[in-house]
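Problem: given the chain below (168 residues), write out its structure.
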Amino acid sequence: RLGDDRPGVGVRPDRLPDIAWVHIPAGAFRMGSDPDTDAQAYSDEGPQHPVRLEAFAISRYPITVAQFRPFVESDGYTNAGYWTPDGRRWKADRRAPALWNDPTWALDNHPVVGVTWYEANAYCAWLSQRLGARVRLPSEAEWEKAARGVDGRIYPWGDGFDANRANV
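Solution.
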């Protein structure tokens, strides 16, 4: 309600999302959790193992309501070309994500909520067309490398929880 001056969470004057992209270099990282050092690790998150990835870019912040709005207000839900065949069947006559008009969740600088994989994937296709560059959802490995770093730490900043470094 007070605005948000962080770059990468709003919309540019041309009504395209202003996304702060972070370059993640190619190379190996330690994927998974080690139950000996992470008491909250689930059994299906291990064992920790090396994975090599090509370079990629990922949004610094979750996609906001303001960034998703141009997709909803343009042809995002009406252009079948953005949607997979299963997504088109799932979507039927939907015109926006669940909770889109709920004032509790529809604040411009908050992450968009109620979005399914189909909608997120269609958003990426829409954004790809607008930017003239391929945009896609990250793989599990890419997400983990971007969030954890390369050395197997539990949190981006290290192994100890710090409420001042997380949006909790």
